[in-house]
Amino acid sequence: MQAKSDHHDAPLADKDEIARFNALAASWWDPNGPMKPLHRLNPVRIGFLKDAFAAHFDRDGKAMQPFGGLNLLDIGCGAGLVAEPIARLGFSVSAIDLAEENIAAAKSHATLEGLTIDYRATPIEKLPEAPTYDAITLLEVVEHVPDVSAFVAEAAKRLKPGGMLIASTLNRTMKAYALAIFGAEYVLRWLPVGTHDWNKFVTPDELDHTFADAGLLPKERAGMVFNPLANSWRLSGDCDVNYLASATKPD
């Protein structure tokens, strides 16, 4: 029997968001299902993570498993689209999500793939506050929480001195509204209507200030841009819609 999570007591939880993603759990790994945009986006996200972590930890990014001996916490992991490829790169991965069905789907898929990942249905604030992790990822999650500053602060508490945190999210611009909400949800139907709330989007400067308030040093940012002709994503200097940002914790 699956253990019941304690997210109902979590002040950083949004119950409507949890319910929405619980409903998508069964189709999360379907590359042509509701999570199709994330499947397309994933190679670019993983490429950025690999390069940023390799540079920060002085590892050979071309090695088969360059991050052996390091551990990583993936917060808001969904059903494991990032946790699995990161584990294959050698990280010892822990991954948490508030949607219990997502965690069940993640555990099942990891078992099928022969991967060992510590999945838990728990909020970040319920984890021990000790700085435990070399790396932390917050990918497509900060735009779904009610208090971004408190959320990032909780993540920073778990990051080891000298560690790196990487987030990806949506910029609060009219271009992002047009493409990520009106275009992706209502016109192209890439995502279920209601997936995003423009008012929760976070500008890169706001995210950097949030990092700084949590005791982190903002480092690099990069935009992610979709090319409809190639049907693929690429990194770009254009952060108007989707972007990634990294920060480090001083030694």
Summarize the structure in words.
This protein is of the alpha/beta class and 251 residues long. It has a single domain, classed as 3-Layer(aba) Sandwich (Rossmann fold), CATH 3.40.50. Strands 3-2-1-4-5-8-6-7 form an 8-stranded mixed β-sheet. The termini are far apart.
Give the gist of this structure.
The chain has about 250 residues and is of the alpha/beta class.
Secondary structure elements and pairings:
Blueprint: H1 15-22, H2 36-57, E1 71-75, H3 83-88, E2 92-96, H4 100-113, E3 118-120, E4 133-139, H5 148-157, E5 159-170, H6 174-187, H7 204-213, E6 217-227, E7 232-236, E8 242-248
Parallel strand pairs: 1-2, 1-4, 2-3, 4-5
Antiparallel strand pairs: 5-8, 6-7, 6-8
Helix pairs in contact: 5-7
Order of helices and strands: HHEHEHEEHEHHEEE
Number of domains: 1
Q: Treating each run of at least 4 consecutive H or I residues as one helix, how many helices?
A: 7
From the spread of the alpha carbons, the general shape counts as: globular
Helix content: 25-40%
Radius of gyration: 17 Å
Supply database-style keywords.
alpha/beta, 251 residues, eight-stranded mixed sheet, 7 helices, Rossmann fold, disordered N terminus
